[in-house]
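EI: anyone free to look at a 127-residue chain?
SC: sure, send it
EI:
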Amino acid sequence: QVQLVESGGGLVQPGGSLGLSCAAVGFPLDYAAIGWFRPAPGKEREGVACIRDSDGVTYYANSVKGRFTISRDNPKNTVYLQMDSREPQDTAVYYCATKHGHIDAGSWNDGPWYDRWGQGTQVTVSS
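SC: here you go
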C-alpha cells in the first residue's frame, strides 16, 4: 500500500477556506519535494504549491500566492494545503505529487519530474 492519499476536498463558497491533506502511506517524505497540482487550460497540470522537506522552503504559483499555504507535519508524514480566499477559478481536482530529489524556484512546478502521484481530490468553489 505505497501511495499518496489526498483528502479534504469539497464545496466551499467564494471567499471561503478549505484545507487539503496529502498523506504518504508506506514510504517516507524525507528529503523529498511535495507539490500540489491542478489541471489548467492547455496544460496537463500546473503547479500550485510545493514544499521542500529538507528545510521547509516553499514555492507558490503567482495566482495563489498570499491565499494558499503549504505546510508539513513530518511525524505524521503528511503535507497540507490551506486554501483561503477561494475563487471560482480555483475549482479543480487537486493532486499531490512527490519525488525524492532537489528542486528550486525554477523546477518545483515541473510536473513530469515528479514520480509519484495521488488520485486527486475534487475542490469546488461555487455559490
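EI: The two ends are 38 Å apart (CA to CA).
SC: 👍
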